[in-house]
Amino acid sequence: MKTYQAGSIRNICFLSHGGVGKTALMEAVAYTSKATSRMGKIDNGSSIFDHRADEKKHRMTISMHLGHCEWSNAKINILDTPGFLDLLGDARAALRVVETAVILVDAHSGVQVGTELVSSLVDEAKVSRVIFVNGMDKENVDFEDTLTKMRDAYGTSVAPLVIPIGTGAGFTGVVDLVTRDAFKYAREGNGIGEKIEIPADLVKTVDTLRQSLMESVAETSEELMNLYFEHGELTDAELRDGLSKGVAEGNVCPLIAGSALLNIGIDQFLTKIVNLCPSAESRKEVTVIDGDSESLIATGVQEPLSAFVFKTLTEEHLGEINCVRVFGGKLHTGTDVINTVRGNTERVGNMYFLRGKDRTDSSEIVCGDIGGLLKLKDTHTNDTLADKSVKYRFAPIEIPEPLVSVAIAPKVKGEEDKIAVGITKLHEEDISFSYRYHGDIHQSIISGMGDMQIDIVLENLKNRFKVEVDKKTPKISYRETITKPVKYVEYTHKKQSGGAGQYARVFIDLEPMKRGEGYQFVDKIVGGVIDAPLRPSVDKGIHSKLEEGIIAGYPIVDVKVSLVDGKTHPVDSKDIAFQIAGREVFKKAFEMASPILLEPVVDLKVTVPEEYTGDIMGDLSSRRGKIGGMDLNGRYQVINAKIPEAEIQTYAATLRSLTQGRGFYSKKFSHYEPVPAELAKKVIEVHKVESTIEE
Fold it and tell me: Could you tell me which of 421, 360, 367, 138 has the C-alpha nearest to residue 257?
């Protein structure tokens, strides 16, 4: 494969609601461009992209796949991302390294919840946008209605460039509105259209839409507007140049119609990508982190080497492949590079251009290009590989707070290490889920964007790493504290066992502190009633109770302990005696100080179509939520609330049900606040029962 420079490279990603046909479009693109000799099918398991065992089982894309093809003297890199809403972490990763997002829309269903969600991600990423209306061969498809819905959703910037000839079983080709050329295709053919006359019944529609297209393009610049007013139209060259500039600046959103499954219109899609979408060279600078501050650096082949690892893939019998986008210089095999995130040196070995499960060897990846590096020693997703002169790193991919958590434990005792190894490997492939041992609740917790994502992780843990787990609802990470001060609480520890004895007598004051202030120990001993070396032992003993709790087994927070008095024995007073006395006097004082439970409260943002706001607000109020207001975001309302974490452990399913799958939410920890007395009583009773069982 020849080397393409950045000006001849187009980096695009496919985004959509699940099941719209992104992977089918990848297969059609590969076949039409002669990158593959046959067109793979997802349904029969012959896809070169959805080739993993779990993808074949679920018949959907689970992990991002890379592809590339050559078309019209350009190279097109394509990143195919999962459409299922739980797996959108890969969409965020892809948008970091492309210049154009292709949003696939189902010709029959139109804008769906996933369409809206990925569109918001494209807005955040500030990349160019193309809409591909897929499935024109489906029954009961109305292209004009679909176009109206697209403009309702994305505004008048939506500009059809290619329209269908017929729909459903009568869908046979497309008309290019820029060139006024019409093309007919063989169903499931080679994807190359045969030029024909525009069907008579479409001539008027073509003229109307082409005129509308000219007006849309003319509005993107004063120069084009003047030309349009002067001549009443734009030349083909002016129209193409205006479209290209409009797409790059985000003022025009091209819409293309076709069928990936039947391979109709795919050649026109590729031509539009090459002719109209910004090249890799168009990205003149990129944000990096240098020390603690962000800055912009220039990109280009003349700059020092810098490459961003945006995805890690694991291939059976091959190992890990780090997928990189080069932003500066060139990557060469056999050279040493610095991982500026981890500080280690890596020797670049095998280097590939990937097309699903197929690989093409390469000796270099130039600025603007995307490829894979095999078996680096200690490089992972979000790392930066660079020339030794480079000190900066690329900002990590922003992954939202996981929404759903489950507690897991091995079905077979002693396999905790196998779980940790397997989860670590799987996290390399999908950084949007997390796993940790939660010391407060003594459970191992896996968290993700939804139940499906967690189920897939655990399914792979079983199939690939041969370890099975039991799932439970996680405990809530409560806290314990007090509500009133107590003074001069005493405890005496004595132990005589025939040998050396133990003796310690301590007096403490205990008082509550402001929420979030933690724990404070103050030594107020005057004189030598307790020897100075023994006083820290009281603090040690108190710490042991802080961690394990007193009333319900949860960590204790926001308390101040003052050591005010005590007594020692000349022989029997020692460190362990004062640790025990400290622990017991603290427990005694804590129980006297009107202890309460605190629960974690989260900031919740629920984004829903306006018609669902009443139902959502009512549901949140029933969950002890406090509504903080609403913000308008396009056609959506964003409801802001503070709500106890215990009330939203199963919120994802409820929200789907209340909004017919059109709502989504995010959350982050806010603060702790007291648990209502009746609920606290239940939590304490559960702890007592569990403690009795353990004993």
Answer: 138
